[in-house]
Amino acid sequence: MALSCGLLAACGSSAGGGGASAGGGGSRFAVAEPLPPGLAGRAAPRIRLADARGGTFDSRSLAGKPYLVTFLYANCPDVCPLIGAQLRDTLARLGGDAARVGVVAVSVDPRGDTAATVRAWLRREREPAQFHYLIGSQPQLAPVWRAWYAAPQIPGDPESAHTAIVWVIDARGRLAAKVPAGQPFDTAGLARDVRSLLTSS
Fold this sequence. Notes:
CATH architecture: 3-Layer(aba) Sandwich
Helix content: 25-40%
Structural class: alpha/beta
CATH superfamily: Glutaredoxin
């Protein structure tokens, strides 16, 4: 299983671990990791794509809410179901606050991620309504991958070979932190991190 984190300058782990505020000053998060200088606090790139559940989704609709962004494909044998399960659990741990949080998953497999295939994945993974799985053609998705430093799935590769990361966006639409998602992470900790963005918004 080969997992990419896109550009090292954008999503490489920082020495010392922990988390930081969007401005880069001091430890703030329990699970999420700080972003490099120049990236932390930057406006999150806009995402506007077809939602597999219907209609067009625009990340601007999440203005005033913190949200999480990740990259998936429905036929993934291992990493994507893990990410989906952990994000579902994170939302569950938020309880009533989950309604004030969004999750955006962007397809990394434009050929395989049809609306029907993705809807089946969402049902199988029991993802809630605020989990938006966005799909499109290669020309539609490629600019989003570039903007978010995401490497797509390699066509025909039976193993996961795409970027496995969860970006944390604050309620002002700024890049706040990241969570490496190629292996299990502490969903209770991520829920605390997200809740901290609710209370500080």
